[in-house]
Amino acid sequence: MIKVGIVGGTGYTGVELLRLLAAHPQVTLSSITSRKEDGMPVAEMFPSLRGHVSLAFSAPEKARLDQCDVVFFATPHGVAMSQARELLAAGVKVIDLAADFRIKDSAVFEQWYGMPHSCPDLLAEAVYGLPEVNRKAIRTARLIGLPGCYPTSMQLGFKPLLSQGKPLVNESALIADCKSGVSGAGRKAEVHTLLAEASDNFKAYGVSGHRHLPETVQGLQAIAGRAVGLTFVPHLVPMIRGIHSTLYATLLPEARGIDVQSLYEQHYADDPFVDVLPAGSHPETRSVRASNMCRIALHRPGGGDLLVILVVEDNLVKGAAGQGVQCMNLMFGLEETMGLMHVPILP
Amino acid sequence: MIKVGIVGGTGYTGVELLRLLAAHPQVTLSSITSRKEDGMPVAEMFPSLRGHVSLAFSAPEKARLDQCDVVFFATPHGVAMSQARELLAAGVKVIDLAADFRIKDSAVFEQWYGMPHSCPDLLAEAVYGLPEVNRKAIRTARLIGLPGCYPTSMQLGFKPLLSQGKPLVNESALIADCKSGVSGAGRKAEVHTLLAEASDNFKAYGVSGHRHLPETVQGLQAIAGRAVGLTFVPHLVPMIRGIHSTLYATLLPEARGIDVQSLYEQHYADDPFVDVLPAGSHPETRSVRASNMCRIALHRPGGGDLLVILVVEDNLVKGAAGQGVQCMNLMFGLEETMGLMHVPILP
Amino acid sequence: MIKVGIVGGTGYTGVELLRLLAAHPQVTLSSITSRKEDGMPVAEMFPSLRGHVSLAFSAPEKARLDQCDVVFFATPHGVAMSQARELLAAGVKVIDLAADFRIKDSAVFEQWYGMPHSCPDLLAEAVYGLPEVNRKAIRTARLIGLPGCYPTSMQLGFKPLLSQGKPLVNESALIADCKSGVSGAGRKAEVHTLLAEASDNFKAYGVSGHRHLPETVQGLQAIAGRAVGLTFVPHLVPMIRGIHSTLYATLLPEARGIDVQSLYEQHYADDPFVDVLPAGSHPETRSVRASNMCRIALHRPGGGDLLVILVVEDNLVKGAAGQGVQCMNLMFGLEETMGLMHVPILP
Amino acid sequence: MIKVGIVGGTGYTGVELLRLLAAHPQVTLSSITSRKEDGMPVAEMFPSLRGHVSLAFSAPEKARLDQCDVVFFATPHGVAMSQARELLAAGVKVIDLAADFRIKDSAVFEQWYGMPHSCPDLLAEAVYGLPEVNRKAIRTARLIGLPGCYPTSMQLGFKPLLSQGKPLVNESALIADCKSGVSGAGRKAEVHTLLAEASDNFKAYGVSGHRHLPETVQGLQAIAGRAVGLTFVPHLVPMIRGIHSTLYATLLPEARGIDVQSLYEQHYADDPFVDVLPAGSHPETRSVRASNMCRIALHRPGGGDLLVILVVEDNLVKGAAGQGVQCMNLMFGLEETMGLMHVPILP
Prior knowledge:
The structure is a homotetramer. Chain A is an alpha/beta fold and about 350 residues long. Chain A contains eleven helices and 14 strands. In chain A, about 60% of the residues are buried. Chains A and D meet through β8, β9, β10, β11 and β14 of A and β8, β9, β10, β11 and β14 of D.
């Protein structure tokens, strides 16, 4: 059994980790930290966990995280990097759900996250936890920086196009028009995500710049091995969970003849959590609700050169906690799908 | 034209007041205060008001509220009572949307609101701003304590039964099972009213005691002229606006023969904002959305002794800002319905 | 392995059955019928089932239901009673999620469901599938009539009070103010449950009479062994799943001293799917979302005689499909909780 | 006073027309037809109209539409074209909210709407009712084909760019990623727009082809005087009202220096219902809820060549009924804004 610790379990990615890990056949939940809630049973804060999680939150100094096999950080940005070195030294693997180990260039990190990076040397070692791209490296990693929710959907959506030997699309002018449920904003008391503000409403935000842009560009460039230009426009949807990314890419003249549907189907044939839908489909976010699945559909309206790629995922599962468990499975030599085969909740 | 000032216009009752007053034919919006937002145009915070409200927020000391004809307080509890005396002395009428002047007994106020009352002498003068009960007193009032949103619906629902010479129902065992949209909690950053918490969810709250209970009991007792016992159970509905109160009262044996439908229709025949629906109706909250109307329907399941009274209102209009404008109209000798005849928004 | 057939799998209880049974360790999904969708893979209608259910719908005559161990009917009222006799004769157990076998008195059935009952003799044999009441009888039953969603919550909420030797509350004047998400209305094309109609809206319905009233009264009377009077007021909540029942019962003078909290905790100590919350709690529907759990909290506002009992369940799980699987487990000698220990989905 | 008739008032555009016209100072509602609901008071179907609309539906043959000054068709496609000729002959102006008179080429109409056009000669006369494009022609028109909801937002969003003498953007590769609330699907009983299907969910639809594409291309080409290529991807948002169009256009090298913000502000300076927001804004659909306003914001992410234009409107007002009233005002020489200056409903 894998002894798991969680730092910061009071947010949505934390409670989702608890939901997944509580039912994982090879996991023992060992400790979960929260200085503020020290002593409070987790199931008191989240009654959904009554009968499933008997742990209480404990203050970090009592938590003995160094005795865990792996520690997940479901914390605000900046926490994991302050504790990772010590845990790694104690032989504990680290999986960060925040952004501390996503961006390889510490200057870029500092520009977008407004804080200095306290262990840039670990950035080199950290593996970007997107199994469909880095499966092999994840198996042997000690330190994982999990992708953001939007970046997961964008990279999975563009990957088959970009990972060919030569460009198929105009890689300098990719567009990602993305829509997310409000749980992506976290369990923070804020006015703009109140039900009375966000319900029966729709808006774009961060059009002039969003933290997930540099991360995604870095990821797409790693996939392509070439420079990539991306415009990313996120929107807020009045729903709890789910991301729908509508991606646009223009086929190059020499690639007009390719069978994009086949390309995607073959590309993802061996990836258990990417489902390429039949041609002409329109994936719904609820078709992956509360599951680790990502579904993709391809369109070429009017038979023209513009590809429209539709990608859905649950931002809290494949976009966060589920992807973390998928990485953990790989890191510990377990079946990649273990504890992750939930049937999505519909309706 | 009536010169109107608003203290605290950054919450939902404030922006709703602005919506109503901006289109009121006899009102000039004179000033709106917010220390924190001093100088910011109101329409910058609430783009819905662009082109309708050109005022900017101003710090209280600049606002010259003493030159207004009437000042509305759309503030947290405790603010109006600290400023009312001075405004009244300057000849300004005061309408408080918070609870400062609702409860006649300052000890009860202090018990439920956790603060001392700074001007108990004004409590005696203050008129409880429910026109259907106190229309005459409101016309000549200088100081109005507007009812809470739930209390408005409960009092309008029970009033015809309680206001008869002798009891018709068991007045010691009234039940009000009330449901409110989340805007009733205000525009405050809080976790439990986030869309990701409150959407696709339903719960009761405050069952052991809610501030609107003593206010409603006081009001019902004033209507009845007798002691009244009430159990009040509020619930949170995943919607923005609207209150639906399901009221239960048991007919006394000697009243079994009354025609409750007629009683209500006759009782409210002259009240422009109370609409008694045909027998057998089920009012929907959206049938009064964004309007000052209250709709009531009566049921007597199985022909038994238990009356079920269904009441809907928009908590921000008839439950707050609209009722304030209705009182203002009465206080200034205007048509009671002036500026309040909006057609509800459906769908 | 239990060979399971499903008649009518295109509605919400059908797809929920599929979700639960697809992951049940002792079940083989054998066939699912739909004349209209004959030949269509189930996962094409419900993409959430892709990779989990490989069955296609088949026309009834092809389905060989007589070779199943158990057949679930997730059909409109009237279908199960037309097929049950033949299946029972073939040695197949039958679990009906509709109302055909709920009501013992066929005259009452006919009055409320507007159709004659075609096999009143089977009504005597049919067991009402509420395990917390009829566990023993269910174990040996061949034919189960599963409770309705509302009746499950009302009976579980009142049961500890009514099942004592002598009355504790005024059993002639029980009130159930119930609120349900719209999936309770089924997956039927109807105007009043369109998102544009039911969203941002709240209403009562069926106050003059609802089919779940006679069923619940029958159940409560069976529990109490005495006549029971109930007023039932259902409401429609703008959410997908969940029932919240707010129950009212008046303590008899001689019962004022009882410890209701202890009574409930002890009563349900051995029921794996009923969770009595700590005193003072307010259960949320989302705390049981997509799970078979029912949570109950008890209040006695102001220390008076009126008990307020709050009950939540997922109408599609404990209120339908999950309860069916729970019964199946009992009927086949399996662990009652098998395949039903999902952690609720929150947020 | 203008005598107004409405054909088909039982859908969302019909009830919205009633809301607007009931409060219009120069309108007398003369008749509203529905064969199915003949004799039923309109306010019985839509209780929101109680006290505002006293008309009853009448069968077409009783309605005396030929005595109206103007008749609105809020009907399915195909109805207006069957009755327009006769009304025009009787001197009645006609405004069609459906698609019968939107598309100039009857062959294109037939291809997309699947029915022959019964009066192609009237197509030549019909004026496309988008006042910001055709104000002058609308003033003297007898027959108006009102734009669809999506096309209104796309045309208003692209117009300033396309209406310059020479191209500023790559007009052959425009993209419109549009999101609509479900009221856009009308008040029809359908499964996919049930709350239990569409709530807490997001999806694209009609990517391979949507009826609003040829209409919009026709409109954009009329604006530009040049061929235009457009990819249109509509999405369904779990909200009642509102359209948010995210438009993408690539600046041509020679146009990189233009001040797009100024261009839009100047272009729409005299249009009362188009509001260009300050640079950097993100318009929300609720900022125009229940109003005739359209708000636009402009972005140029990273200072690159890709323009991102954000457009919001209420699909039932500026996208349908409100635009119809705006046209009516122009056709009868009234102030363009008469009866349309509602303050949007927020929250």
